[in-house]
Design goal:
Number of helices: 1
Largest sheet: 9 strands, parallel
Distance between the termini: 67 Å
Structural class: alpha/beta
Order of helices and strands: EEEEEEEEEEEEEEH
Number of strands: 14
Radius of gyration: 19 Å
Amino acid sequence: GTITLTGGSGLNVVNLTNLELNSGSEKLILSAPTNGYFVINVSGIFSVGTTSSPADITVAGGLSQLHVLYNVEGTGSAVSFSGSWANTDVQGVVLAPYRDIALNGATVDGEVVSGNLNITVNYSTVDVPEPATLMFLATGLAGVGLRIRRIGRRT
């Protein structure tokens, strides 16, 4: 079934032992206003979808996927997101500093950070910044460089 967690503005913290959505009918919806944030602490298994039965974690109500942090604590089994040709969607930032991460046919709409540096990707997608965003970053860095150069010439 579908589970909806509704939070308010500011920080909403949820502590879970396991977060397992392993059936095509299972879905987690995180809902909050645009100034809301979720931190989902997972101390055990974090598994979304299987290759034959995708599942989803999505955001609603104005909540941005970049305002959701899945903090996977400690060591243990790999974080696993699986689906059939990207039918599993996880929205948010996944932080697993002591675990491996396995993406198998799943989409992460946000960021993935693993301290173990063992991220396995099979037929999955992770969104990357648009070229325009990178262009703005490059322009800003060039401006900072020119400013530093001008200050250096004055002294």
